[in-house]
Amino acid sequence: MRHGRKAVRGPEGLCAAGTAPAPGARLNSMYFSPPSPVRKIAEADFPCRFGRFRIYGFESGPDGRVEEAVVLKMGEVASGPPPLVRIHSQCLTGDVFHSLRCDCRAQLELALAQIAGERRGLLIYELKEGRGIGLLNKLRAYELQDHGADTVEANEKLGFEADLRNYELPARILEYFGVRRVRLMSNNPDKIQAVERAGIEVAERVPCLVPVLATAEEYLRTKKEKMGHLLEGF
Ligand SMILES: [Zn+2]
């Protein structure tokens, strides 16, 4: 797979929740923390608007620094060709409140529809709001954006890197399901590289392109120009 440049880390705009770091904190250490085993906390039947999934709750990490993720799985994924996988970072404002500042909800729905269409695949929903900076810091970043900063500058003004996520937890979750090769739904070359660094082979990148809303145009332009997202036709 060809990888994009790596000047600025980052997918999913200011949208991705988890434990909000203190303003100004830099969490570089999280990139280097050794992978910790993933623990399945619960599993249940999960019918939703897109089809019938299984829902799983996972956590990893030591006490006090636990990361959590929810997985929606459809079909058999351990055997056969690489399954369709989408790693989505929680965006409360988009996923729940239908925000038009970003395209997270549209991408989430597209991913679920596509997995249901193939009757097979995994959605890994990471509880890492605002690309890891936390919900309230994401709202502070919105405030800065209202005064002219773009999504990357806003994060940096708050003392964060553009994207604090790593992909150890999703990679360990994929391994839990016996998946080592994936067709990854993403527009973000850095994400593909990060997933591969975490030990999962990306056999194919499947674009996750949704209609561009005028209200999200600046945000998407920044993702394309500063974060190298592959947003064809934009
Ligand atoms: Zn969002």
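The pocket of zinc ion is lined by residues 13, 15, 91, 94, 102, 104 (CB under 6 Å).
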